[in-house]
Amino acid sequence: MLLADRRIEIDARPAPPAPPVLEVVMLGHCPGPADDPARGAQWQRIAGDRAVLGEIAELGFHRAARRLHELLANPAGAAAPGDDALRALYRLPLPVVSLSQFRVLFPFAFDTPTDYVSVLSGNRAWLPAALQDFFEASTSLGREQLKVWVIRVPEEEGAEAFLPVGCADLSEPATLGAFERALLPRRAGLILLPDLERLQVPANLPDVPRLRLENPRPVFLPCGVELDDEYRERRNVEEIAFARPPEPLPAAAVVAPIARTLARLRPDMLCLLTVPLALAPEGELPVPAPAFLGYVGELAARTIDEGIAAAESAGALRHLQLLYPYLRATGRPLSSPSGLIAGMQALVAQRSGPWRSIGGRPLPGRSLPWPVLSQNEATSLRQAPGITVLLRRNGRNVVDDERLCMPCLPLIALRRLSAGERRHEHWLSAEVMRFMGWVQRELRSLGERLVFDADVRDPRPELALRAFFNRLHAQGALRGARPEDAFRLARRSDGESTLIFDIEIAPAYPLDLIRITFLQDRHTASVRTLLEAVDG
Q: Is residue 404 part of a domain?
């Protein structure tokens, strides 16, 4: 477009998308043809995309990115150990910004049967369905673009492949397991394990009995006619032969290592985990596994009541947001609600800020919560042990309240409160934990930009911190009539190379105060943030 006799030229281009506020990591299965060495993964798409290879290399996988590029450039070259796993994209964090991109990378994931089969969850992987739910409400354009890091886990390794390994070191990415690799994306705030939840559904857990009708008269029909109309007679669960289905892992084997690893390596992250199912002593519908609820409830209750760590993982339970129930729809077996809830959390964080809750907001999709809960049952699960419950209200799926099973405070801060103060419900807000994690990531990013300018006489770090918290106050994340009422900065120094800021903020929550210590050391090139919440 030319204006004023070609003295002004306008070249219209689309604006670059805003960076995602809350990135998510999903670990799961992507089944593919067994006769294909890559198991259906279209690794050529990754190897030919320099932007994607660059993002993978930034996480520390330079050798894997370089080897993928070499395999694409010279397919007939000499094979190296690990090439088949690399072509299958096993344990490699892949950035995905849309459902169509995932379908291109793993075209067989939605329709290929899995090795593990159960009556309720069927024989399909849950990762593709969770990813579909995650992108259900987003437009993948402009300011609403979301981002997921997908990590494919080998099916033959079972549930143990999803769990952390002991004493992992993030400085050596090539030696890490799948869970530790999920901690590498710096802007990620949520971890989802949909196929671990699928493996925790007992194989022979029965479904609701169907209505028994009189069998129709036999007629000759083409072989491709579908006769399952949800009412005809079917085989009993005991008649279905399962090839030695593995037993679900106990709660201590799942909850404890995940919570401890997050508390040690990524204290700013949350893991969304759905409560397993169990057979009800009376009634037709499955119920939340009593052993799982008892384990989590006992750890949380002892820590809150006594102010001590009943186990090493007790204080780390704040890094788990437990969900219930599951999702189900016509033509779609049981699936995890974690993708739907994480998608709304990421979308609300992108639109309104990470300090906003998704409680009461209508969730997209056609799936319904299953098993159906009454309001009394939902209230009971929310209060003890502290579960985020999905309900059906006015024809829409909603989360009544984002709840944690443990207060969102570090254990050292929890010990300073009385038993009555530790029971306050506002400590159990999952959105507060998510906001505190986002603040830690933003301050860490700010400190890394200033790590080589840590001069005690330099005013730029303080100016940058004030600008950051001024923006939070202007956007409504902090309460107070003026910025001076919303936060305070106290600057001090521990030598010529270390710069420390004690930060107090008043978030727009029932919490009274969050005290942050921002420490920057030039000699060790490190940045640390310590958070402490204060009530009253």
A: no
